[in-house]
């Protein structure tokens, strides 16, 4: 039975060793937050250990990562003839990461940084998205007073905009210089990302006088996906999680495609609602034009193109026969709109 338990872990260690860490932006963020002495950071066994920790946290929570007691305590002991020299070299990085941690051994110093990473970018994103989810549900709930619902409606968009902006800053940083060429290069690198699309989406509605609860559907789906991934990654061994949250989280994680299609349908439906709003007292021509530019970007961006193109194809298969049969005079305006859309 011992060999049967070791075989899956052996395959997981092989998968962790062959993972492409350099092309994963989360690895650079993870490694930059680890505080260890320079002589340990240059050692391949230490780097491999933290790569396995990263793989366990972000890719496969079932991977068992052994402590560095066997690798880190044996190798540093070679140049040092007595064990009394070991604590000073390890206490220094530990005092930088956690000041209240008791001084123990070199193993505790090596295992300390991953626990401090619990308050990294992922934790902040989880906190913000959990708050957005609660506030958005409050805004949609029909029995909430109107003034409170309006406040929650705007706070939902503001929270999602801040979360998207923080994610963009964490992954891509800021422009190298505040001149036109640098800004063009920077925006070309982020314009097709999902965070940038949601940032513009939230700005479009948080500054609008229209109160469309329908617009909160993509915000709810995004917040739900972020919260679910964080809970499954960090609380999968908690008894409360397994009792109350495991089944909903598994359902959300296995139906992300359904949620993305639902978000795409809501986003396209909002475009037509904004066109209808042009015939009301709350019309905003600039907002409608900007939102349709955003829909055009969603149709072309790789992260959303598949879902939006699927929805538009269904609309075309339904509407085109009706136009050909009952309103052929609309063929010319639709052809002009299609030329603008694909330009």
From TrEMBL:
It is a multi-pass membrane protein. Its main location: membrane. This is Per33/Pom33 family. Residues 69-112 have a biased composition (Low complexity). Residues 67-115 are annotated as: Disordered. Pfam families: TMEM33_Pom33. It comes from the Eukaryota. GO terms for cellular component: endoplasmic reticulum; membrane. Coiled coil: none annotated. Belongs to the PER33/POM33 family. The chain crosses the membrane at residues 126-145, 152-172, 196-224. It comes from Trema orientale. GO terms for biological process: endoplasmic reticulum tubular network organization; membrane organization. The keyword Transmembrane helix applies. Keywords: Membrane, Transmembrane, Transmembrane helix. It is found in: Membrane.
């Amino acid at each position: 039975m011992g060999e049967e338990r070791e075989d899956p872990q052996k395959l997981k260690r092989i998968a962790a060793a062959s993972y492409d860490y350099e092309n994963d932006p989360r690895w650079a963020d993870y490694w930059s937050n680890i505080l260890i002495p320079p002589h340990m950071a240059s050692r391949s066994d230490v780097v491999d250990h933290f790569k396995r920790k990263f793989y366990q946290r972000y890719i496969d929570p079932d991977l068992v990562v052994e402590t560095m007691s066997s690798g880190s305590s044996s190798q540093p002991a070679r140049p040092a003839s007595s064990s009394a020299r070991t604590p000073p070299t390890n206490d220094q990085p530990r005092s930088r990461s956690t000041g209240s941690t008791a001084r123990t051994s070199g193993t505790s110093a090596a295992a300390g940084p991953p626990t401090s990473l619990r308050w990294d970018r992922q934790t902040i994103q989880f906190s913000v998205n959990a708050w957005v989810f609660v506030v958005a549900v409050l805004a949609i709930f029909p029995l909430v007073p109107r003034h409170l619902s309006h406040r929650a409606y705007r706070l939902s968009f503001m929270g999602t905009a801040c979360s998207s902006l923080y994610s963009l800053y964490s992954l891509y940083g800021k422009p190298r210089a505040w001149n036109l060429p640098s800004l063009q290069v920077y925006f070309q690198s982020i314009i097709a990302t999902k965070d940038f699309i949601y940032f513009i989406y939230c700005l479009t509605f948080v500054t609008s006088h229209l109160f469309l609860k329908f617009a909160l559907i993509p915000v709810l789906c995004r917040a739900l996906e972020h919260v679910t991934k964080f809970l499954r990654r960090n609380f999968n061994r908690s008894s409360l999680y397994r009792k109350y949250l495991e089944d909903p989280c598994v359902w959300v994680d296995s139906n992300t495609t359904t949620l993305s299609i639902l978000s795409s349908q809501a986003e396209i439906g909002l475009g037509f609602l904004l066109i209808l709003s042009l015939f009301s007292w709350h019309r905003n021509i600039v907002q409608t034009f900007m939102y349709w530019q955003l829909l055009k970007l969603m149709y072309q961006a790789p992260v959303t193109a598949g879902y939006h193109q699927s929805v538009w194809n269904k609309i075309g298969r339904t509407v085109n026969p009706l136009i050909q049969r009952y309103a052929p005079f609309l063929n010319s305006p639709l052809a002009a709109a299609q030329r603008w859309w694909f330009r």
